[in-house]
Design goal:
Number of strands: 12
Number of domains: 2
Structural class: alpha/beta
Distance between the termini: 37 Å
Helix content: 40-55%
CATH architecture of the largest domain: 3-Layer(aba) Sandwich
CATH class of the largest domain: Alpha Beta
Number of helices: 14
Order of helices and strands: HHEHEHEHEHEHHHEHEEHHEEHEEH
Length: 318
């Protein structure tokens, strides 16, 4: 087991050092590539063979999910008709460690024939791919993490990381945000976390609201009826000025029924906006001082909904 740990740590160290070298080597070509991809009217077609092809497919998926239209084109299939998937307004990003991959020839030729921008990701700018490319994203020369064989390890890690860097830089260049991201991720926990509060909150007659002069006897009945364990206290303009919670009841057990909601309430309660994300709501609930299980949803100071932690749990947020 100690030998396995030694090997594992060696591999990670080799790849970490290569990633550091890649970071240090980024230059104006990367900036130009970001501008090119961000300004495309069409799609970015990614291609590669073998392990580079698997990485290219992943980069295409990352780009597409972060707002950049992209697709993977297998170079062998491209030679048998799939070149038609790459059209006017598109650009090509070809991945090859050596830059001499024969299978890329038809895709490269197609890009040159129709004047499509070609980006090459390779360790060798003087290779066939490097010479044909309009821009070269150069990978640093780095040893693979294997000792006995030259299996793609470090090189594919570098390709993957550089693809991520390109995708994120283009995403930020375009101002692509969390709400845009949700449009491409409607399912699963990620989609749930990016759901707006307005889609989960309770509204209308479900809201437990009362004016400050409400006797606590009535406030208690309202808390029981609405089943949120709290009452929102609103002033004459309809703005939320406080909340009566179970904790407030315990702190005022002596003579409780002789008070009004305004006398018992906690002022300046935590609230959330209707256009906030569910993930923001769960974070706000979890923050101390104090942590809460219910948030009133307010707009211009007035409650328009209420959100319970159970609503977030049912939606799969937490």
């Amino acid at each position: 087991m100690s030998d396995a740990l030694t090997v594992g740590r060696r591999v990670l160290q080799v790849e970490a050092e290569a990633l550091a070298a890649l970071s240090a080597s980024l230059n104006g070509s990367f900036t130009q590539a970001v501008e090119l991809v961000a300004g495309l009217n069409g799609r970015l077609a990614l291609t590669g063979i073998g392990k580079s092809g698997h990485v290219a497919r992943k980069i295409a998926a990352t780009l597409a999910s972060t707002g950049t239209p992209a697709l993977f084109v297998h170079p062998a299939e491209a030679s048998h008709g799939d070149l038609g998937m790459i059209g006017a307004g598109d650009a090509v990003l070809a991945l090859s460690k050596s830059g001499e991959t024969r299978e890329l020839a038809d895709v490269i030729g197609h890009a040159k024939r129709f004047g499509l921008p070609l980006i090459g990701m390779t360790t060798r700018p003087d290779s066939a791919l490097g010479r044909a490319a309009d821009l070269v994203l150069r990978l640093p020369e780095a040893a693979e993490a294997t000792e006995a064989v030259d299996a793609p390890t470090t090189s594919t890690t570098l390709q993957m990381a550089l693809g991520d860097a390109l995708a994120v830089a283009v995403m930020e260049r375009r101002g692509f945000g969390a709400r845009d991201f949700r449009a491409f991720h409607p399912g699963g926990a990620l989609g749930a976390a990016l759901t707006p509060v307005s889609a989960l909150m309770h509204v209308g007659p479900e809201l437990p609201l009362a004016p400050p002069d409400t006797p606590m006897r009535e406030a208690l009945l309202l808390m029981t009826e609405k089943r949120f364990g709290c009452v929102g206290v609103c002033d004459t303009s309809g703005k939320l000025v406080g909340v009566v919670t179970d904790g407030d009841l315990r702190r005022h057990m002596s003579g409780l029924l002789g008070h009004t909601a305004g006398e018992i309430m906690t002022g300046a309660p935590k609230t959330v906006a209707p256009n906030a994300l569910a993930a923001e709501a769960i974070k706000l609930m979890s923050e101390p001082a104090p942590a809460v299980t219910v948030l009133f949803v307010v707009e211009a100071g007035k409650p328009v909904g209420i959100l319970h932690i159970h609503d977030l749990l049912r939606a799969g947020v937490a």
